[in-house]
Amino acid sequence: MKQFWRTMLRSPSGIIGLIILVLAIVIAVAGPFYFPNSPWRMVQRPFVPPFTVAKVPLGTDALGRDVLAGLIFGARVSLLVGLVSTLVALVVGVPLGAIAGYFGGRIDDALMRFTEFFQTIPSFALAIVLVAILQPSIYSIVAAIGLVSWPPVARLVRGEVLSLRTREYVQAAIVTGQSNAWIIWREILPNALSPVIVLASLMVATAILLESSLSFLGLGDPNLISWGYMVGAGRTVIRQAWWITVFPGVAILLSVLGLNLIGEGLNDALNPRLSREGR
Amino acid sequence: MPHGDSSRVGALDALQRIETVGKFIMLKRVLLGVAIGCVLSAAHAEEPKSGGVVNAVIQPEPPGLMLAMVQNGPTQMVSGNIFEGLLRYSPKLEPLPGLAESWTISPDAKVYTFKLKPGVTWHDGKPFTSADVLFSIEMLKQTHARARNNLVMVDKVEAPDDLTVVFTLKEPFGPFIGIFEVGSMPMVPKHLYEGTDFKTNPNNNAPIGTGPFMFKEWQKGSFIRMVKNPNYHEKGKPYLDEVYWQIIPDAAARAVAFETGKVDVLPGGSIENFDVPRVSKLPGACVTGAGWEFFSPISWMWLNLRNPILANKKVRQAIMYAIDRDFAKDVIWNGLGKVATGPSASTIKFYTDDVPKYPYDPAKAKALLKEAGYKGEKIRMLPLAYGETWQRWGEAVKQNLQDVGMTIETIATDVPGGNQKIMEWDYDLAFTYLYQYGDPALGVSRNYITSAIAKGQLFNNVEGYSNPEVDRLFAEGATAPTDAKRKEAYEKVQKILVEDVPVAWLLELQFPTITKCKVKNLITTGVGVNDGFRDAWLDK
């Protein structure tokens, strides 16, 4: 573990990514204590440019709502959706991949065809359809993003399991008569985890982007403010008020960038060959 | 305001400011003219000039142009200049001569006699006579739902001679004089439609009317072109040679088309509200809120009275106090429109502002909610999915209501989904706006009388309000023989309704028409652009 952190912290991208992510989490968790007001509240006159009124440092939007408050509350939604929907994707994808890879044969065929069925549908289009059918809400958005993001997980896990299954220690476990579930859970999955972790960090970034895109198109949860919603709502007045779209846009950019850098750092740290080189 | 509707002045600070700018620019141009030695007096400048082509935006593309068959907003706007009605209406909704040059109403208010204008011809040269009027009425009863309703009180229609039409009513019906507008009762050529299948008649694609402009061509998805009717029955009119209705599907592109000079007229609703101030300030742009008096759209939130919380009058009044309607007007509608005082728009007949008032007063709203015993139960709100403006409005109202302690959940939906929910009464609060058609009997009573409650309709009494006294007063208002009696009934009913708050009235909406200032005299009636090109002219 110590080794992991050392490698992680040695790569500059990992450090930058971590800093950005920690900052975003701190803002999302602690920010609302400094802004007890709802981000939907109209606090100032509309279209106050940034850096002119101390009370609303990043200006106000078309209704006079505080852009900074929107950013802070939006961070909650974006991070939450990113994390939870990735969790959903993992919960669906990891068992499916593991079962397919472990048992092989017909089960593998059936599960992989099923996975491919999902992979052939463009994921964003599917997400839009799902959210539109289920009515936009935070739950339907998380479900839709989870549902369109699990196939790569399943395929990745299957590949890992396929190669691990032929290892001697797995064979030994089978010979000693342990149950399949036990072998998958205790012997195989822990060893297949590192690429999944890297993938998951990238999936969080993708999920944040997906959520932003959905909100941008007006398919966000109407009761929650999110960065994508802010960009979408400000888009039409971009000629009069650039700041309404630019700040949340930058927030999306930074958090996605941060997560990608972390993914890279994780890859370096978890890849046994690379981390040994660092020794 | 250019057309002198005093009741609107004051509601339009922003507009007036913009107009002042426009006038200043015009003045500068005149001064320049004088300076370089042109003989150009201000009076002379207002003399109509003939000739020229005007490009107007039509949004969205109309589904058809046969006004007797299709009555969409855009159809009315284009075809109102091709067809004509018996009467036209001033911005104050007084009847003006149209195809009828004069009319008399019998003392018992049951017999309406119209004298038609002599020498009027259809675009194909055939004369227009009383036989066309009789035929039009029969045809409209089959094809035009609103006309059918308007004509319910008619006992018989007769034509004693070629230029006289006599309507006899079953009983007096006060709003009757208000139903002859071109979109409500367009005159159709008998010689082309009699005995044919109205739906498949080839003339539907190239409509023939009596109006100042003749339909010329329609390039689907691109433009509709109409040309001057050289034999129009008003001598010297129309002044313009041609009008192109440009079809541009994207709101931003429409604004750009105006900026670049590709179009000269942006009818109300062509561009998004937030773009209105910017586009209005462009050099050579003039803007007016006039020309919607006949429709007088008024917006409100349906309150579902079947919900036990909203069934409590105090909760409904609290909602009225909680909503900052001035904010909505100034910020969301960019200063356009007027805070609604009650069920009638201030521009229609028998309006009174002598009703209980609901200023923005969150403290009072909180107190009322407390009295009503409201404990934060969840209320669902259905915004109107008509674009940016309505979405922002939903957000602002939600915040207003949450500020006084209500728990509001916004239901995200599209237009058909939202309509469905309203029709099935599956909502608590729902945004809407409705036309009023100039008279409480035509556009207001339908939303509050018991007999208009029915599942499966998007308008009428969706909230489920039922009050025998209100029913009685509306009936009395519709059939009272004199305007004084009608006024009395309607003023009473407005007071009762405003006290009861069956729906939460928001704003009288205004859809500004933006034109190049060189387009003159476009909006002269209560339906604005819909029959405006008759008098419009181009200052070159």
TrEMBL record, chain A:
CDD domains named among the record's database cross-references:
TM_PBP2 (cd06261)
Keyword Cell cycle (UniProt): no
Its main localization is membrane
The UniProt record lists the ABC transmembrane type-1 domain at 75-263
Which keywords does this Swiss-Prot/TrEMBL entry list? Answer: Cell membrane, Membrane, Peptide transport, Protein transport, Transmembrane, Transmembrane helix, Transport
List residues traversing the bilayer: 12-35, 77-103, 124-149, 197-220, 240-263
Q: How does it sit in the membrane?
A: Multi-pass membrane protein
User: What InterPro entries does UniProt report for this protein, alphabetically?
Assistant: BP-dependent_transpt_permease (IPR050366), MetI-like (IPR000515), MetI-like_sf (IPR035906), OppC_N (IPR025966)
The record's subcellular locations are: Cell membrane
**Which protein family is named in the record?**
Belongs to the binding-protein-dependent transport system permease family.
What name has this protein been given in UniProt? ABC transporter permease
Organism per entry? Bradyrhizobium denitrificans
